[in-house]
Amino acid sequence: AKEVAESRNGEPERLMKSRERAEKAYQKAAGDGQVAGRDADGGYTIPRAMNNMLLEASLENAVMRPRATVIPLGTNAVDLPTVDDSDHSSETVFGGVTATWESEEAQIASSKAKFETVGLKLKKLAVLGYATNEMLRWSPISIGGWLLPKFGAALAWKEDIAFISGDGVGKPLGLANSGDYLEVAKETSQTADTVVWANIAKMFAQNRGQDGSQFFVAHKTCFPTLSTMVIGDTPAWAPANLAQGRPNQTLMGLPLVYSEKSPVVGDAGDIRLVTGSQYIIADDQSGPQLAQSMH
C-alpha cells in the first residue's frame, strides 16, 4: 500500500521490477502454448484442406499408332499378301514387272510381280492394379475414375515402346529390329553425339515413300544440336528468332516428333525418317477388354 501511495510521484523501483517480471512470465507462457505453426504443439489438430485435383505428369502422345496401318482381326493370326518391291536396280518394279521399249515386230518380254506374305499374330498386353474398398470410398479423388484411364495410357505407352524397339518375342517387332531400314553413317569429321546437315540430307535421299505418312521421330536430346545445325555459316534448321518463337515442328517439310522412346543423340536411331503406312498393327476387332472385381 505504501508503494502504491508513493507511485503518485513516479513509479517506485520495486513496483517497476515486479511489473517487468509479470510481463516476462506472461510472454513466456504465451510462447510455450499450443500453436498451429508446429504440428506437435497443435498443428495436427487443424485439418488440412484437400483439393480433389491430383497433380500428375503427362505422358507424351503415341508416336506410331496414329501414323501406322491398323488392321482389326477377327482371329488370333492372319497372313497378309504383300508385294516385294524392295529392289529397283534392274529397272523392275513390284518385284519383277518390267516395261521395255520394243520395235514394231519384236516379241514383248514377259514380266510378273513378286509376292510374299507378312504374318500377324496377336500378343496380349495387360495391366493390373489394386485399390482397397476404403481408398475407393473415402478418397476425395475418384480413384476408380482416375485409375482406369491411366491404365489405358500405360498400355499405349508400353505398346509404343514395342512398336519402336520391340524384339518380336511375345511383343510386336519394332522399327529398330525389323531389318527394314537403311542406316546413315556419321560423317568422318562429325563430332560425337551431334546431328549435322549431311545426316539429314542423306537420310532424306533414301526416302522413297511419298504417301503423306512420312515423319521424323527423334529423341529430345537431338534438339540442341539440331538448333545449331548449319550449312556453311547459315543456320540449316533454326529460324532467326528461335529463342523468341516456337521451335520448328518440321524437318525437310515433314513432321518432326520428339519421343523419349527413341535412343539418345549419338546412338543409332536417335533420329529416324519413318514411312508410317508401311508399319502394320493388328488389333483384336473386339477392342480392349476391361475386367473389374471386388475381390
Verbal overview:
This protein is an alpha/beta fold and 295 residues long. The protein is built from six helices and ten strands, in the order H-H-E-E-E-H-H-H-E-H-E-E-E-E-E-E. It has helices at 2-6, 13-31, 133-138, 143-165, 197-205, 223-227, and strands at residues 69-73, 77-83, 115-121, 214-218, 230-231, 234-235, 250-251, 254-258, 271-275, 280-284. The chain is elongated. The termini are far apart.
Read across the widest sheet, the strand sequence of neighbours is 7-8-4-9
Q: Unreliable segments (pLDDT under 50, ≥5 consecutive)?
A: none
Q: What would you call the structural class?
A: alpha/beta
Our measurement of the CA-to-CA distance between the termini, rounded to an integer number of angstroms, reads: 81 Å
Whole-number radius of gyration? 36 Å
